[in-house]
Design a protein that fits this description.
Number of strands: 20
Shape: elongated
Distance between the termini: 34 Å
Helix content: 25-40%
Radius of gyration: 20 Å
Strand content: 25-35%
Largest sheet: 6 strands, mixed
Length: about 280
Amino acid sequence: MSGVICTANRFLCLSGCHVGVEFLGQICYDKDNPIAKGGCIVVRIGILEDEAAYSERLLTYLKQYQTENPDFSYTTEVYTTGIALLTKFASQFDLLFLDIQLPDMTGIEVARRIREKDESVMILFTTNYSQYAIDGYSVRAFDYMLKPLSYQPFSSKLSRALRVLSYKKDGVELHLKTKQGSKKIPADEVQYIEVFAHDLHFYTDSEEIKIWGSLSDYEKKLEKAHFARCNVSYLVNLRYVKEIQGGEVLVGKHRLPISRAKRKEFLAAFAQYKGGSL
């Protein structure tokens, strides 16, 4: 049980997994409001924090957020060391709060190992120093919070995270007609789309899918799923953006050019997606 703690006060410790779990209704989404009727899920949250005061503060903030948003439902697992989380990790979380400074390894290293198993879990770092947060680009962190933690930034970032989760939980699928037949693919797995000679190329981490079609049509379809154009030929899934440097954007392992005409609009879309924090 070393490195894993159970929380008390309305939390249930499950036998054998040392997990604090609290069910407080249901979290429901629509496209404009993360707390709304329809499409209910339970948000699975993991906390990695070696200082009890900060893990308790996060748990308190979650309860306060639920008080303000009565339909919010969540489960929590709290870990005090990186190795404890990695040993138990099995892609069971929607959202992870990771402390960067830990006794056994850095939160960045924990996140790197998690990304080897799970490309979609949302990661929010907590840290005493803002300069560490820039490393979050390398593991596609969603955001970070500076210590000492305060409720207002926490509430704002959690609300924004829930909006993004709402698109993922909607299970948006693209139905692509290739020469070999029809293929279904989750929009969340597409890193970017390229148009070339009237063909569209959909790039995921493991494959390239080519179909005939219009990039503008897919731009409209994917507008609410955080896709944005970096130039006339590329439509980028913003969650896969690792860095923007000069006139290029790193999407997964691919560097794509940002055109002058699209630069302002693309940077604004990325800033809105990231909340202007990373």
